[in-house]
Amino acid sequence: MTLNTEIENKRKILTMSLEEAFLYLGIITTVLSFSANDTLSRACSFMMYFFWLGWAVLSFSHTSVRINKAVLYMVFVYAFLWLIMQVLYLQGIHSTSGLGPARYIILCVPFYFFGNNISFDNGNVIKGIVFSYVFAHIVFTTLAFFLLFWTGVSNAKNMSGQVLGLGIVLDFSFVPRLIKSRIGRIFIYSWGVFSLITLWFLHSRTPFIAALIVIFFFFFERKRNPIAYFFVILLVIVVIVYFGQTQSGNEQLQNFLIGNRKYTEVDFSNADAIFSGRFEIFAEAISDFFSHPLVGVGGWAYIDNFPLHVLRVGGLTYGILILPFVYKRLFGCIFGFRKRKCNMKEESNEFLILLSAKYISLFFIVVSLMEGYPPLGPGTSAFFLWIVLGMKDAVTEKEQI
Fold first, then answer.
1. How far is CA 205 from the centre of its chain?
2. Quick one: 314 exposed, middle or buried, by C-beta within 10 A (0-12, 13-18, 19+)?
3. Residue 5: partners with Cβ closer than 8 Å, 6 or more residues away
4. By the 8 A CB rule, do 32 and 163 touch?
5. How would residue 352 be classed by pLDDT, with cut points 50, 70 and 90?
6. What string of H, E and C letters represents the secondary structure of the chain?
7. What angle do CA 141, 179, 165 make, to 5 degrees?
8. Which of 118, 126, 137, 114 is CA-nearest to residue 31?
9. Which segment of 1-5, 138-142, 392-396 scores lowest on mean pLDDT?
10. Which residues are within 8 A (CB) of 269 and not within 5 positions of it... i.e. 6 or more apart?
11. Could you give the CA distance from residue 379 to residue 381 in angstroms, rounded to a whole number?
């Protein structure tokens, strides 16, 4: 080996190491940009741009840029819908020029693009990506818990809950298979339980329910000792009895479901109150859609259900361009996984990527039925989903639309 070749190899190793460090720090700072600590949140909101840009520069200095059809489609949809909404506003058809849920498409583009271009030359990169999120999730949960403990309030609970709920999904369904130490697995499971408790006191109901659904889905889809199923079922019965038959449990459940928001003094049996008036608003949204089926009523018309929100804001124009694209990808991660896993080794990067995409997609499908912006947003709170979707498409070498 010549001196020049040795120097070049060392340069490549250093570049790849820095590239991975910037990638992991980009994930950590993006998660912590939603932190309950305002100082840390502002600092991370600034630093994440530096780390993602640094990763891109280092990555594309030695690899070619891959821009697939999904990236082009998302950019086209955003630009096309932006133009339509401006025209409708200028024509007086819509009262605002806002894009509603479509405005978050453009924020998903860079993260999907990054995920689609991540190099898997290092066999530990997917583990590094997941552990980066989990590390940030541990810091995030700790800060959220102490803010609640000292002040009794939470900041941006929907976005915080979404970030926290995804961390819980990884704690239970994915991370333990990456940890060989029994003590390590006990810790991550325990932290998942602690995070669920924190999420409960945040009164962030949607991600709490979604995380529980994913955990039960994960538990019951795998072959386990019958004793394990017995104890899980027993635990569920105990929880149901506690919340349903005791005064203390009933009060805690009512506080969680209703909280101190719009409904403060209501009958616990009032279903519309428990669901924050969603039933009434859903009926209004359906009526608005049928009244304006082609272009909707405009970006002001928020509703806590992603499909209905899309149709209410932009009618069939939005629905046809957004919903098939989003849900085909999410459901494809769930049902497509079983078809491919038989051809992959369980310790391979490809298998781990498809597995993580499966559970994360299920989480966001459930959340999307009770919130108006996920799986596109709000903000960058869904960023990790789009990174994983980009990696998944890179692995399967398909450009799905």
1. 15
2. buried
3. none
4. no
5. confident
6. CCHHHHHHHHHHHHHHHHHHHHHHHHHHHHHHCCCCCHHHHHHHHHHHHHHHHHHHHHHHCCCCCCCCHHHHHHHHHHHHHHHHHHHHHHCCCCCCCCCHHHHHHHHHHHHHHHHHCCCCCCCCHHHHHHHHHHHHHHHHHHHHHHHHHHHCCCCCHHHHHHHHHHHHHHHHHCHHHHCCCHHHHHHHHHHHHHHHHHHHHCCCHHHHHHHHHHHHHHHHHCCCCHHHHHHHHHHHHHHHHHHHHCHHHHHHHHHHHCCCCCCCCCCCCCHHHHCCCHHHHHHHHHHHHHHCCCCCCCCCCCCCCHHHHHHHHHHHHHHHHHHHHHHHHHHHHHHHHHHHHCCCCCCCHHHHHHHHHHHHHHHHHHHHCCCCCCCCCCCCCCHHHHHHHHHHHHHHCCCCC
7. 30
8. 137
9. 1-5
10. none
11. 6
Note the pLDDT of residue 8: 47
Q: Residues, the chain, total? A: 401
| Cα–Cα distance for residue pair 88/190, rounded to 1 Å | 52
Sign of the CA dihedral 257, 259, 262, 266? positive
Q: Tell whether pTM > 0.70.
A: yes
Band of pLDDT at residue 261, cut at 50, 70 and 90? very low
d(CA 340, CA 324): 22
Write down the pLDDT at residue 179.
Answer: 85
**Amino acid identity, residue 356?**
S
pLDDT value at 7 more than 50: no
Upper half-sphere CA count for residue 386 (Cβ side, 13 Å):
25
Are the beta carbons of 367 and 214 closer than 8 angstroms? no
Pull the structure tokens for residue 160.
């915080």
Give 79-96 pLDDT, tens digit per residue.
999 999 999 999 888 888
What's the confidence (pLDDT) of residue 25? 94
CA distance 185 to 174: 11
